[in-house]
Design brief:
CATH architecture of the largest domain: 2-Layer Sandwich
CATH superfamily of the largest domain: Histidine kinase-like ATPase, C-terminal domain
Structural class: alpha+beta
CATH class of the largest domain: Alpha Beta
Shape: elongated
Order of helices and strands: HHHEHEEHEEHEEH
Number of helices: 7
Distance between the termini: 78 Å
Strand order of the largest sheet: 2-4-5-7-6
Radius of gyration: 31 Å
Number of strands: 7
């Protein structure tokens, strides 16, 4: 949500007009009608104007605080993106200069290529987040919505995450039931790709992720569980804000832009679902629970019994008799 300056400017102009009217009214009250019958009428009008000015001051203060917070988040985002761009580019430049200026062994070259691929993946993730955030203002057309099997999306996201982070397949345990969600496939991929990536990045060492998707009465509920340190209860609503990243930007051990969970929540709400965050009872870790409207797959029609030529002939005879 972009911050608009039209509303605070309008409010400021209205407050200035009220203050001027209030001053003029008090001057007239003092000079002209102090002893006339209009005294109490002017007092009521003046008090009402004063009350409106006070309400305007409070609203202006709230709007100013909102603008300051948004500016701080945008500054945090710029710092994060600058770091996300500069670090992999500097790393790529160093490896390429090393490969071009002096001979290296085959093992060293293989390691350099692997590190460069990691840096390219990091840049690709950043660009994808930026593009995903830019597409949030575009409402999907009805023609773009299709019936999607959610278990396939979850399985593909889990396999892709294991490959990206070089994890064994056992690092992500998957348990799903079949459910059909009416949505754009790319939206579902963005939602669960971000949640699984976060579960791996902020999980324990080694990361262990559980994905459980079960059909309920009003839809399908998917739980993404990690084994990380968890999120304090007072910060669980804050993490879904735009540009929000917990902690100091200069003390982070994980990459990110502060847009992932904001994108997730926006897309989930667009699909008429909801997302909540809880901790694991008796264990360290976080649970992201996503509920989406869904329906069960249509039951397949039972196969028709084979009919022999003799049975067909007998049926034709009985129908003509």
């Amino acid at each position: 949500m972009r911050f608009s300056y039209g509303w605070p400017i309008t409010l400021a102009v209205v407050m200035i007009v009220l203050v001027v009217a209030l001053i003029i009214g008090w001057v007239i009250l003092t000079v002209e009608i102090k002893h006339s019958g209009l005294f109490w009428t002017a007092m009521v009008l003046g008090t009402s104007f004063l009350g409106l000015v006070l309400v305007g001051v409070v609203l202006y203060l709230l709007i100013s605080i909102k603008g300051i917070r948004l500016t701080q988040r945008q500054s945090n985002f710029i710092d994060s993106v600058s770091h996300e761009l500069k670090s992999p580019i500097a790393s790529l430049k160093l490896y390429l200069q090393t490969l071009s200026r002096r001979p290296v062994t085959g093992e060293q070259a293989a390691n350099f290529y692997r590190f460069m691929l990691d840096d390219v993946q990091r840049l690709d993730t950043l660009i994808n987040h930026m593009l995903d955030a830019a597409r949030l203002d575009q409402q999907p057309q009805e023609a773009e919505l299709v019936d999607v099997e959610l278990s396939e999306i979850l399985r593909n996201c889990a396999e892709t995450a294991c490959v990206r982070y070089r994890l064994p397949e056992t690092a992500i345990r998957l348990s799903t039931s079949e459910a059909i969600v009416r949505a754009r496939p790319i939206d579902l991929e963005i939602i669960f790709r971000n949640l699984i990536d976060n579960a791996i990045k902020y999980g324990g060492t080694p990361p262990e992720v559980e994905i459980d998707s079960q059909f309920v009465a009003d839809g399908v509920v998917t739980r993404i569980v990690d084994n990380g340190p968890g999120i304090p209860a007072k910060l669980r609503r804050k993490i879904f804000g735009r540009f929000v990243r917990l902690g100091s930007e200069l003390e982070r051990s994980q990459t990110g832009t502060g847009l992932g969970l904001f994108i997730v929540r926006t897309l989930v709400r667009r699909l008429h679902g909801d997302i909540v965050v809880t901790d694991r009872q008796g264990q360290s870790g976080t649970i992201f629970k996503v509920r989406l409207p869904a329906r069960r797959p249509a039951a397949e029609a039972p196969p028709k019994a084979a009919v022999s030529p003799q049975q067909t002939l007998d049926k034709m005879k009985s129908s003509t008799s």
